[in-house]
Amino acid sequence: MTYFAIDPIAFSLGPINVHWYGIILGTAALAGLLLAIQEGKRFKIPSEFFMDLLLIGAPSAIIVARLYYVLFEWENYQDAPLEIFAIWQGGIAIHGALIGAIIAAVIYTRMKGYSFWRIADICAPSLIAGQMIGRWGNFMNQEAHGGPVEESFLRDTLHLPDFIVNHMYINGEFYHPTFLYESLWNLAGLILLILIRRGSFMRAGEVFMTYIVWYSIGRYFVEGLRTDSLAFQGPEWLASFMNGLWTPMSWLFGEQGAIATDENIRMAQFISLVIIVVAAILVVVRRRKGWADQRYQDPIQREGYVTRPSQQS
Fold first, then answer.
1. Which end of the chain, N or C, is less packed with Cβ atoms under 10 Å?
2. Domain with 34 in it
3. CA-to-CA distance for 1 and 270, rounded, in angstroms?
4. How many domains is the chain partitioned into structurally?
5. Contact 297, 204 (CB under 8 A)
6. What is the pLDDT of residues 236-266, one digit of tens each?
7. Is residue 310, in this structure, part of any structural domain at all?
8. Is 135 annotated as a binding residue?
9. For the segment 38-91, what is each residue's pLDDT rounded down to a tens digit?
C-alpha cells in the first residue's frame, strides 16, 4: 500500500522555498495576537501595545528556544554551525520559547507602565492557542512524534483521518502523532482559560499560572511518548518517580518512547514538574502576602491612569 506524505514545502518563490512550518508558526502568532487584542479592548488597552509586544516577544522566544535546543544538542551542530540558523527544519524547544517570551514581556510591560501579571493573564489564551496551532508545524515536518505504533491503532482505535495516518508513516513505520495529542490538550486548555478568566475568584496572575500548569501537565505525559526528547542522566530515584507518574499513560498508549541509553530523565518532563510546583507555590505565596489583591476583572492601572474593562464579552 502507498502512503502519501505531505510535502513540507508549501511553494517556492524562485530559489526561496516557503515551508509549511513557517506558515503555520506565522498563523499561530497571528491567532494569538488577535485573541489578545480582542480581550485587551475590554480594558481599553490599545491594539498597538499587543502588536509591539508580539514584535518584541516572538523573536526573543524563537532565539531563546533555538539556543535552548542547540545547547542540549551541541554535538549535532558543532561541526556545522550554520545549521543553527535553519529553524525551518525544526529544533526549537517550547520551554526555551516560554523563557524568551517572559523575559521580553517583563521588560516591555515595565517600560510601558503595565503590570506584567495583568498582561500575562490577557495573553495566556493567546500563548496556548499559538502552541495548539504551532504543533501542526511539527506534523508537517514529520518531527516531534512518538514511538512506533500499529496502523490499526491510528485508524481503528484513534479513528484518525487518512492524511494524518499517512503522514505518520515515516521510514517504513507508523508513529504516535504526539503533535495531535498535545494540540488537543491545548485546545481544552484554551477553552478552560476563556471560561475561568471571567470568574470572580481569579486573582491577577492566576490565569497565566493556570496556563503554565495546564500546559505542563499535558507536556509531561505527551513527552513520555516521544523519541526525540532532550534528556540527561539523573539520580535513579528521580527517574523512577517520574516513570511512576507517567504509568497511567501506558494503559492507553503503551510503552514510553526510547531515549539514549546513557540518559534516564527527559528534560521537558523535569522542567514541567518544576513549573507545576513553582506555580502552585507562587499562587499560595502571592495570595498570603497580598501580592495578588487585584482580580482579573479589576481595572488595569498604567502610570496613574485606570482602564476599566467593558461589560462586553
1. N
2. 20-301
3. 40
4. 1
5. no
6. 999 999 999 999 999 989 999 988 788 999 9
7. no
8. yes
9. 999 999 999 999 999 999 999 999 889 888 888 877 777 877 777 777 776 667
